[in-house]
Amino acid sequence: MATTIDSEIRIPIAHDEKPEPKSRRRTRKPKEPPTGPPATFGTYLIAIIAATVFLIPLAWLGLAAIATPAQFSQGAAGLLDVQPTFQNFYEAVTRINFGKFTLNSLILSTIMSTLTTATSATVGFAFARLRGRGQKPLFTLLLATMMIPHVALLIPTYMLFARMGLVGTYWPWVLWGLAGTPYLIFLFKQFFAAIPLDLEEAAIIDGCGWIRIYLRVFLPLAKPVLITSLILSFVWAWADYLGPALLLNYDNTTLSVATASGYLDPLGNGLPTIQAAGALLYLLPVVFIFLFAQKRFMGSAVSSGVKG
Amino acid sequence: MSTMTEAPVAVAGSSRGRGWRRYRTSTFYLFASPWILGFLVLTLMPVVYTFGVSLTNYDGYSPLWRWVGFRNYIEVLTADPGALASMGRSVVFAAVVVPLTVALGTALALLVNRRLKARGVWRAIFFLPSVVPVVATAIMFRLIFNRDAGLLNYIMGFFTDAKITWLADPYAFYVLILMMLWGVGGGMIIILAALQDVPVEIEEAARIDGASYWRIVRSIILPLISPVLYFQVITGVIGSLQILVQPMLLAETSSIATSASVPSSTTLLMVDVYNEFFYNQRFGYGSAMLWLFFIIILTLTLVLQRLSKRFVFYQVESGTDTDKG
């Protein structure tokens, strides 16, 4: 099952790696002559120590995932002298209905990412290219909603959805998707605002309406941002824990909830090595996406964060 | 070419007659409506609904609820030491985590802004943890801080015989802080971008004048990137005050159903709220706590806004972009 995740996700990424160089959103500076002060021996020393510390949790997860329970219970001494076994991975996919949870995660993340990307692009276009009464205050409101404490908002949303009978279904994600994501709207707005006026002028002169201009002229240009948005929102939905934990039942929940709470023996005790293997399988797609689309993650973080 | 000459005729003939205008308010609202509707239904409505619930003794399912006025609010503020303690803990948590994340993020950004070999790889290593899903992060930290099989107790075993139960009471708080610090990479990337916007000439000039690296960092770089640091502080405060999932997942038991088993040192405000809702079934009371939380966040943001005027240095009106053009 893990392989299908990869192949399904990799296709769009591998496909988009080529147009990257001519991508026109916020051209990034590295690659030009190196900037910044030179690195000394001390710099490397600090960098190596810091990188080691940052990688330890991942390495430890990997070690626990290939250890036998006996080695694990010996403690770190056993783990550092591990005899690799892949039994944990077998157990991780058989002890819980791994395939079904993965499919749930895939469906939910796909619904969320396609809908929210479509909406965010449209709304971003409106803020960048159209004019209307009340637009300025609405944009301020949009920026303000980026500050809203989302976790705190989720419980109220849960109460409302419970009232409407939507708990246990995927409808909340459809609604969230249709509403767009302020962060992505902002990303699209930035992109569309940078496109020269001539382009839409030509289209207006040709008698196109705004919907045609948007669909035929602007949307095709926005391909790099569309892909970034799809990837980011997919990973967010894949990583979300609280949403599925509150709003779904255990049968139709996502892999994140199943990974967190599904690996128990009949007595209710945790199974750390198996859970580590499960967590690794759950994490792997995200790491792959990150490695292929690193620039997109960083670039989007930058263009949203610099805005003070 | 020919379209260019024909086009104006077409415009004058077909649409201008009906009062052609380039921008119509209705077009804007047509395009922006999904978000506006979404905001009304998915943000405003829940918040308002919660306020309504906070004035009742609703328990989540029973239809026999009553209006109780502001009694819930009064109880939170005067008769619930647990709630006040969790609020205080959240404030302490934010007061520790936010400065640490901003400082560490800045330090890492300064580090990877240097001319290291394979700079991209270093950046990726520090950035990756911030992308790792919280469930996986919590599992990793539970393994490292495991009492018997964890790495930390193993390392400490060289110095002392005492085994510390890290995920239990006094220590869980520190583990949680470390877990937050591990995800510092997101902030690092934003600060790094700000560092790259600092004009090279100013740094050069200072160096020629004999300023040391630390002097340049302190007197030139930090003031110039202070708007970005300020932004980090604001989002950091909002983010760390509403921490909920991390303490729950870090708790020894692995099931969300038992969120009440979160050790008291990591029972932060939102964990307490969550318990009121789903453990004690006090929806009305929990809603009142949520509203108090919203008010706290709003007040804090406004206070920080005020303070920023004193500490944040804005080069030109809202312009990191202006010096590029």
TrEMBL record, chain A:
<feature type="region of interest" description="Disordered">
    <location>
        <begin position="11"/>
        <end position="37"/>
    </location>
</feature>
<comment type="similarity">
    <text>Belongs to the binding-protein-dependent transport system permease family.</text>
</comment>
<protein>
    <submittedName>
        <fullName>Carbohydrate ABC transporter permease</fullName>
    </submittedName>
</protein>
<feature type="transmembrane region" description="Helical">
    <location>
        <begin position="41"/>
        <end position="63"/>
    </location>
</feature>
<feature type="transmembrane region" description="Helical">
    <location>
        <begin position="173"/>
        <end position="192"/>
    </location>
</feature>
<feature type="transmembrane region" description="Helical">
    <location>
        <begin position="213"/>
        <end position="239"/>
    </location>
</feature>
<keyword id="KW-0472">Membrane</keyword>
<feature type="transmembrane region" description="Helical">
    <location>
        <begin position="106"/>
        <end position="127"/>
    </location>
</feature>
<keyword id="KW-1133">Transmembrane helix</keyword>
<feature type="domain" description="ABC transmembrane type-1">
    <location>
        <begin position="102"/>
        <end position="292"/>
    </location>
</feature>
<feature type="transmembrane region" description="Helical">
    <location>
        <begin position="139"/>
        <end position="161"/>
    </location>
</feature>
<feature type="compositionally biased region" description="Basic and acidic residues">
    <location>
        <begin position="11"/>
        <end position="22"/>
    </location>
</feature>
<keyword id="KW-1003">Cell membrane</keyword>
<dbReference type="InterPro" id="IPR035906">
    <property type="entry name" value="MetI-like_sf"/>
</dbReference>
<dbReference type="InterPro" id="IPR000515">
    <property type="entry name" value="MetI-like"/>
</dbReference>
<keyword id="KW-0813">Transport</keyword>
<feature type="transmembrane region" description="Helical">
    <location>
        <begin position="274"/>
        <end position="293"/>
    </location>
</feature>
<dbReference type="Pfam" id="PF00528">
    <property type="entry name" value="BPD_transp_1"/>
</dbReference>
<keyword id="KW-0812">Transmembrane</keyword>
